[in-house]
Amino acid sequence: MKRPVPAESASRFIDEKIKELGDWRGKTLAKVREIIHGADPEIVEEWKWRGTPVWSHGGIVCTGETYKNHVKMTFAKGAALKDPSGLFNGTLGGNTWRAIDIHEGDEVDEAALKDLIRAAVALNLKGKPKLRRASVKRAG
């Protein structure tokens, strides 16, 4: 079993990927990343499947794949999410995954994307026990 890439390394790998792309795809991936962190500051960056940026909180929220003609944000539980703004435009036929394909020149609806990310995190955390902080008594 492979060991997960430490978060610091994953973030560095994502930085390098953005820099290596050096074109609109790198800028788009960087923008998507910024939106994701703006939606949920507690999200964790991961590097999986031979070079795919992954953002997780209580499970995978979405991936950020880059292809020749588009950047794809794939939501692990996208089929279970409401999408009132109609952002999902890829992988619509599956039972679980849904994706947003972003092409060169496309405008990203930041508010709608943040809402979708927050909904994905809420779905991941639904039914999971909340971690309770231990109480600390101060010496008097």
Description:
This protein has 140 residues and is an alpha+beta fold. The protein has a single domain, classed as Aspartate Aminotransferase, domain 1. Helix content is 34%, strand content 21%. A 5-stranded antiparallel β-sheet has the order 1-2-3-4-5. Strand 3 and strand 4 form a beta hairpin. Helix 1 packs antiparallel against helix 2. It starts with 6 loop residues before the first helix and ends in a 15-residue tail after the last helix.
Label the structural class. Answer: alpha+beta
Estimated share of beta-strand residues: 15-25%
What is the CATH topology assignment?
Aspartate Aminotransferase, domain 1
What is the tally of beta strands? 5
H-E order: HHEEEEEH
- In which range does the helix fraction lie? 25-40%
Calculate Rg over CA atoms: 17 Å
Number of domains: 1
Could you give the distance between the termini?
Answer: 49 Å
DSSP summary: helix tally: 3
Compute the average pLDDT.
Answer: 88
Q: Characterize the biggest β-sheet.
A: 5 strands, antiparallel
Shape: globular
- CATH-derived architecture: Alpha-Beta Complex
Low-confidence sequence ranges: 133-140
- CATH secondary-structure class: Alpha Beta
Please name the defining characteristics of this protein.
140 residues; alpha+beta; disordered C terminus; five-stranded antiparallel sheet; Aspartate Aminotransferase, domain 1; 21% strand
In short:
With 140 residues, the chain is an alpha+beta fold.
List the helices and strands and how they pair.
Layout lengths: L6 H15 L2 H16 L4 E5 L3 E5 L3 E7 L3 E6 L22 E6 L6 H16 L15
Helix pairs in contact: 1-2, 2-3
